[in-house]
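Dear colleagues,

As part of the handover before I leave the project, I'm documenting each prediction I ran so the next person doesn't have to rerun anything. This entry is a single chain, and its sequence is reproduced below.
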Amino acid sequence: MLVPLGWLQEFVQPKVDIEELAERLTLGGLEVKSIEDIGAKWDRKTIFVGEVVSVRQHPNADRLVLVTVEYGQDEPIEVVTGAPNLHIGDAGQKVVFATNGAHLIDGHSDTFRYITLKPSKIRGILSQGMVCSEKELGISDAHEGIIILPNDAPTGTPFADYWGDYVFDLDLTPNLARCFSIIGTAREAAALTDSPFNVPVPAVKIGGESIEGQINVEIQDPDLCPRYSVALVKNVKIGPSPEWMQRRLTMAGMRPINNVVDITNYVMLEWGQPLHAFDYRTLQSRADGNEPTITVRRAKQGEAMTTLDDVVRKFNDEMLLITDTEGPLAVAGVMGGLQSEISDDTVDVLIESANFEFISVRKTSAALKIPSESSIRFGRGVDPELTLPVLYYTSELMRLYASGTVCSGVVDEYPGKKELLTIDLPKDEVKRLLGIVLETKTIAEMLVKLGFSCTIPSDDVVRVTVPSFRFDVTLKADLIEEVARMYGYDRLPSTLIDEELPIQRTNREIQVEERTRDILAGCGLTETISYSLTNLKSIAALDPKGPKPKAEDFIAVANPQTPEREFLRQTLMNTTLETVARNLRFVDRVAIYELAHVYLPRVDYHLPSEPTRISIALTGPREERSWLTTASKPVDFYDIKGVIETLCDHLGIEDAIYEPIDHPTLRPGRACSISIHGKQLGVAGELHPLVATAFDLGERRVCLAELDMSVLIEEAVLWPKTNDISPMPALKEDIAVVVDDDVPSDAIIRTIIETGGNLLVDAVLFDVYRGEQVGKGKKSLAYNLTFQSSDKTLTSKQTASARARILKKLASEYNAEMRG
């Protein structure tokens, strides 16, 4: 929320400077994100409040005039301008006047740039200054006319001193609903800086007939509308609001529209009570000559209305509407309807000041996708006691600045009135939770500054009555939090706990996950984090030839903020490929992994299971470019298999089995499943060309894997056992066998290791041959076998039995023939 300091100072004069005030607010929970110094770029030596002395015609141009401006110096200066809001014969207007050397924004350029004002001849007449528009000063983009200041603007004052201000940008959490207004922020600032806080009681000058008989109000759903109040102002004249009001609205981030709308917005920002103005005559015309009746009710299923943004909205029966006899007029607490909006022809204005149940407003605003200043405030909670004071204040402003006549009385329906909550706060409880000793009188003084009413029935207890605007306070702990804020979080003492720390126990899941991250990072992969939400189009792209995924098979978000993030993902593959595609816009090589949850629906339980998965993606050259190599082959299946093998090796997993599979996302013949002791770890391979096309990856080779983290957690050996290093030399022998082409090499190696006995310590495939010499449908696999004893030197005779045993087993298991 944007809070102009000049506006805030109407209610509190903080006893500290700007920086100190920002710090006090932040420490008190109202985080000040930034402070904007409006007018910092308006040079006090070159930009002034000026007064028009005279305006005469330019002798050489019909559309230009010569303006003589007094600006507090020795002599007035004559300048040339084409401003349409200055006319021949004008005098006395207060303007913004810039002299030579002023740095201004070029009002005639399509691009943003500063210029330095210099004397120049315009159509033969020397101009030594400029009367400025809002664009030239950076206030807005308006440059059709110059700024006309109020008549009481002091001539000769630097414009930065007159119009400049500081604007605090507050980042307010939802529990600070009371601070979504200038007055609410001022109350906090006064308490936190120990400054006087003053809010004048709104008064209104009545000049019209009674409101009785001109409008009725009926609340059909008091659970959603505790209070609804209206006032009637007649014979208004629609026009611009006062300059000071427009300036404050602009600094607070709102665009001025006209006096009636601006007044409702101004009061909302000042008091925190949203308002709505209806064109009363449109209500009369819909009432068929009878007095209009405002009915607050739930919508009928499918009921529709065109809102102020000119969009037809359909409602469900949980949404609250403001209606008359003809139908909807507004969405309660969110946005008004186009039918009854204030227009240039409006004469009579019905002002709504109501209170709505905050969860209802929040749900309605989200469902209709209508964020508004009104729904932001109602969605956090608004004090129901504000409706009448704000009505009086708004009516008076319309009398003053829209020339309206205020009807006598208001209509106020208040079925949801609640008794104020009283809480007894023992001072010992404050000591127990905060660790400080405060007397009951001190506690009461702190709370009173925040608007609470306090009495002290005994020396040990403060009896606190919670004001209506503090619906966030319901417990003793809430009051103690307020005491802590007032005392200062930074002043609370820090102490060490007296008890011994409990025995530290390891968490196997976290240990394995962190070790996995370290290993993958060591493989040169970068960790990524993607959204847990996805969409059906992205999911379908993983299986282009398969059936389209059904929405009912996935867990949907009730109120997705975008169609791209509508369903909880059941795999990491598609979000990982989206990350790869985004990164390939900037780099040629991507090596990433993600360790995250997926969400699988469960029939027997309303919450999904959330297993952890690892996705790995590689694409681009195998090696990064360097002076050692300028060209490298692209990654392939064996690169991603190598990453998984490295991960398993470093986790102490020795028995991973890789088997070829057909997978809709992966390329046929270049995909495998991985299992450990019969448990499915995951899949890996090269991406199918159709899937690559669907994710805008082109024809490049992309390798992808997805692993089940729970299997790694279960199978990992965090503290692997080690064997003594043998001092004896190793004996290496080669064998080559011819097998059918579809026999996997990994199966051969497993059989060799299992059959080789204690002396066989390693077996490595070093050659694969297919050709005429081995026959069609066959392949030759050559392995290097390493034999070693821990206590003696081996000879070939000692390993002959192991070798023969291996060949016999391979022949029986795979019909393998020894190749000479």
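The CA atoms of residues 183 and 271 lie 6 Å apart. The chain has a mean pLDDT of 92.

All the best with the project,
I.
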